[in-house]
Automatic annotation (TrEMBL), chains A, B:
Protein name: TetR/AcrR family transcriptional regulator
Record flagged with keyword tRNA processing: no
Pfam families, A to Z: TetR_C_23, TetR_N
The HTH tetR-type domain, residue ranges: 3-63
DNA-binding region: 26-45
PANTHER family in the cross-refs: HTH-TYPE TRANSCRIPTIONAL DUAL REGULATOR CECR, HTH-TYPE TRANSCRIPTIONAL REGULATOR RUTR
Species of provenance: Cellulomonas rhizosphaerae
UniProt keyword annotations, A-Z: DNA-binding
Domain of life per record: Bacteria
DNA sequence: CTGCGATTTTGAACACGTTCAAACGACGGA
DNA sequence: TCCGTCGTTTGAACGTGTTCAAAATCGCAG
């Protein structure tokens, strides 16, 4: 495993993904563009999925970088959640069109690029960490009984939002933006209301359910 | 288009899907098993996705059939929603294992088997109709201001639940059952609470958001 | 420098989904 | 009966992701 060759394959693949999209970036094209034999790409990346995962990692890094600026700036839960979600759409934006193809690959259970796969451990913990910061840094503070589970729920919400984005063919994915601007205040409001006696039962049920399902 | 040949291809494909799963059911195997030339399967079903969609339709019919018995029996929103969800998991159950592969195909935007595709109009309206009945027949009645939008939201919840099921590798998909048993009462409770002044604002926001996003 | 095992690289080969030009066949009109 | 047309059927061919035996190259012990 020479790092140089691996990196050459990786960068060539990502460039072609950007230039041609997923389907038209064949393993043969990657190898040829890099001046290598067809089989060599498979030596460093067992399947095409593994190259998609590199893209997934790249986008997540970009997202984390952009989100960090926001997270350092304070704000309430709604504002922080909303900003991080918008940053996610921004990071993905240049891939809409064939982005759909990538998410399709990523969502396949067993795929290396799946957010739940072992191979995606890095990207996943990075994403979760983002939402831990969203919650931890919120002012006013998030109610204590929600602080443990909320980050993962917000991260899952981001995955759902990405799925929506994939299907969103409105110009500039305006509907996804609208969804974010609607969901973030709603989540903020429900978190605030969860302290009230009427809703305390429901929010406890949600948390119990999350724990039960995870087990 | 002779109906006989088409049906022969269809039934052979569905049988092989059941016996071998998605990946091992090649277009060549379907044609060979049916005693036809390779290309003929493509004459009746342009892509393999279209054959998966036949399976999707089959499962939806089975689900509708099973759910109907429940829907005719009355009950409150929680019970009806819960029963219909369980019936959905039942209908899918024999496909878990390679069911994941099918849902993967179905979720791809542009795929004929996508629940949002034109080709799936039949299966989609059938599913929506189920949840219209869930809402319309609930006793006590669902608050009037929710009656219009709730069926589609419940249908979307079913899609999400199916997605969860795909990833659920617990024995017998117990975690999905747990999720259903937790989510249904929660939805029932929130619908009831939505009448209260504190939550009336939030529930109106949800409905406004749904309408805004759809537009 | 030589030899040899391990690592890296090659490119032909395989099975797949899909396409398509050609062949076939049924059926109605002359 | 023959012909022509149109719907059906055939199977070879294409490009794909992936595999793999073989070749080339490297690293290092002697």
């Amino acid at each position: 495993m020479t790092a140089d060759t691996r990196e050459l394959v990786r960068s060539t693949a990502l460039r072609l993904f950007r230039e041609r999209g997923y389907a038209k970036t064949t393993m043969r094209a990657i190898a040829q563009e890099a001046g290598l034999a067809t089989g060599l790409a498979h030596y460093y990346f067992p399947t095409k999925d593994h190259l998609v995962q590199e893209l997934y990692l790249d986008v997540n890094l970009e997202h984390a970088r952009a989100a960090q600026a926001v997270l350092d700036g304070g704000g309430d839960l709604t504002a922080r959640f909303r900003a991080v979600l918008h940053a996610s759409v921004d990071a993905f934006s240049e891939y809409h069109g064939f982005g759909a193809e990538f998410v399709t690959v990523a969502i396949r259970p067993g795929s290396a690029a799946s957010p739940f796969s072992e191979d995606s451990e890095g990207a996943r913990s990075m994403g979760l960490h983002l939402y831990e910061q969203v919650v931890a840094g919120a002012d006013p503070a998030v109610p204590a009984h929600l602080r443990a589970e909320l980050p993962e729920l917000l991260w899952l919400a981001q995955l759902g939002m990405t799925l929506f984005w994939v299907y969103d063919s409105s110009p500039g994915q305006r509907r996804t933006r609208t969804l974010i601007d609607g969901v973030a205040p709603l989540v903020g409001r429900l978190v605030r209301l969860s302290r009230l006696p009427v809703l305390r039962g429901a929010s406890d049920d949600v948390l119990a359910l999350v724990r039960a399902v995870r087990a």
